[in-house]
Amino acid sequence: MHSLLPLSRQELLSLLDRPVLDTSVGGLPSPPVNPSPMSELGSPLMPKQENLLEQLPSRDTEWDEERRGRDPIPAEADDINALSLSVDRQASYLGASSIKAALMVMLKVQPSLRNTLAAPLSGVEMSHNFPAARQKSSSSSSVSSDPQRIPWSWKGQTLIDAYFKRVHVFVPMLDESTFRADYLEGQRTDAPWLALLNMVFAMGSIAAMKSDDYNHINYYNRAMEHLPMDAFGSSHIEMVQALALIGGYYLHYINRPNMANAVLGAAIRMASALGLHRESLAQSSSDIIAAETRRRTWWSLFCLDTWATTTMGRPSFGRWGPAINIRPPEFGVNANRDSAQHAGILPLIENIKFCKIATQIQDLLAITPLLRTEDRCSLDAQLVAWYSSLPWLLRTTDPCAEPLYMARCLMKWRYQNLRMLLHRPVLLSLASSGLNPHTQACDADLSAIETCRDLAAQTIEDVAREWARNQMSGWNAVWFLYQAAMVPLVSVFWQWGSPRVPEWLKQIEAVLDLLEVMEEWSLAARRSREVVWRMYEAARQLVAQQRASASPTIQVLTGADGMLMPSPGAADAAGLHMSPIGLEPVDGLGMMGLLDQGGLWGDLDGMYWGASPTHVSLGSPVDESALAAAAAHEFAAYGHPGATTGAHEGMGVHAVDYSGIMGHHGHGHHGHHHHQGQQQQVVGGMDGFSYVQ
């Protein structure tokens, strides 16, 4: 049913004339290294809710990311990151950890959101359409058959410097001294070298320039001239490294995630054909540097694939398993050959440990988004233990060189993002199910929701304070902000009556301001801001409408269970007939029927969660039992399931303060309008970041 929500009436009618197609998916995803039994869920959530979190394309669905060269689709738009909205309906398979899952939950909770998201794009959104990769021509074959050497130049040297300063620290698969020497000599004309060199130029151009500079596309086109289809049969490590930069970074930068996924998968298969996954072949090499390059290349592929696919909700397809016995890079082997500006391969060594945990999480979520409580807590504990055991050099906030600083920031942002994604399915499932969390959710689920919200808030605060003005930082910062913004957005649409709504709206406003500042340093910042802005406006209008409709006619009361509900007399006056326990209307309307009445009760009265648990430092392990106890204490005042008598006892008038909801973004905030007060706080680092309680 969730696939029908974005469709117009005419499109729904046209579906009636189509034959019914079998959309079942055959086969199972690859199991994790240490699979946990999934025979039962430690949550009362209904299994049917999993379907909403999994975006299965229909049998006749196609996706073509190269349509941007033919159709008026923004360069930043893609279906995986939900940046295309209604502009690009062709969809690929996505799982519960994708942005699309959060968007579909919001559409179910508030169907009126569809009209807001379906609005045509503003003209300014088309400004980032850079030239598409040119098609192969008859002359391109002559270029490949008779390649020309690339002589040394100051421009090329600058791009290489930018690459080793801002990219190499994340994927140190190139031997820097050898690479620089080969470029300085300028004598090599073989296709693997020319493809790799041009991709280093492309990534160096991105790292050194702002988002409105498109020189990188020229280097990418030149690299592709040396990567014909038969290049996939090449057994050369430099060809694998070139494809790793294309599929692991560049295609994601220009928002071709499906193409990137395919190219990186091919690179991993080529690497396995070279035996890069086996330690015995590395040890048999008499060249220590060559053996270390093999290790670095394999583990760089492993990390790139993990980072790229975490938010797709697709299985890992065996990138990590018992057959892969290559050792991690050996710290210090190339100490004298690495750039002196960063800590060598230390970030890669720690990222390998992180990505092994992330692969387990990815495979489990690909099987079922609703993990058992024990599995979810165990995986979360592994992540917390990993972060708390990081070497001092990667955890300290002491001043350091830029490459090491960027590695620190991205490691922390990824850590927080993965923990948030691990707990987010609980939030999405409860929001979409219509269940009352006060009586139908266990303490562990409530704790997971609060952990998810805390991590989203912490991510927004940390990114605001720590991001740097270069594209390798801004590009990643925008992505993690976009992910984090989905949590308060879902919360507002689901629980629009909660006293915490001003807090959630302030978080979204902080994201909007940051995305505006980051437009110079991220290709996707403008489009991401447009999507978040539209959802924010719809959420703000929803809250304002309910406030207006509640104030004159409905006396808002707070029951003993913390739920906001109208007094019976006011409800009758408003034409809403409530059942004796104040949860379900009579006349058999149900939750979806109430949504049709303006959405006033679409979230079961906007559940009040109370104060959030005391924030736990991200650098220290979290005691899950303590979190559960805190959640149990927090909800001790809530009513028990099945209590149908005395429902209104102990209720008193509860004044919900909505002041400030429209205080900052309530006056025509659109496009590139700057807000000096909030802007100063964001740019200044948000050191005094606080929320309205």
Verbal overview:
With 693 residues, the protein is mainly alpha-helical. The protein folds into two domains: 149-367, no CATH class; 376-683, no CATH class. The chain has helices spanning 9-15, 49-52, 99-109, 113-117, 138-145, 154-166, 176-185, 191-208, 215-225, 237-253, 257-273, 279-283, 288-309, 346-367, 373-388, 392-395, 402-433, 437-440, 443-466, 471-494, 501-517, 525-553, 568-573, 590-595, 624-634, 676-683, and strands at residues 556-558, 564-566, 652-653. Strands 2-1-3 form a three-stranded antiparallel sheet. A hairpin with a 5-residue loop joins strand 1 and strand 2 (564-566). The model is unreliable at 18-48, 123-128, 137-144, 553-628 and 630-693 (pLDDT under 50).
What's the layout of helices and strands?
Layout: H1 9-15, H2 49-52, H3 99-109, H4 113-117, H5 138-145, H6 154-166, H7 176-185, H8 191-208, H9 215-225, H10 237-253, H11 257-273, H12 279-283, H13 288-309, H14 346-367, H15 373-388, H16 392-395, H17 402-433, H18 437-440, H19 443-466, H20 471-494, H21 501-517, H22 525-553, E1 556-558, E2 564-566, H23 568-573, H24 590-595, H25 624-634, E3 652-653, H26 676-683
Antiparallel strand pairs: 1-2, 1-3
Helix pairs in contact: 3-17, 3-20, 6-8, 8-9, 8-10, 10-11, 10-13, 11-13, 13-14, 14-15, 14-17, 15-17, 17-19, 17-20, 19-20, 19-25, 20-21, 20-22, 21-22, 21-26
- What's the number of structural domains? 2
Tell me the series of helices and strands, N- to C-terminal: HHHHHHHHHHHHHHHHHHHHHHEEHHHEH
Count of helical regions: 26
Strand content: under 5%
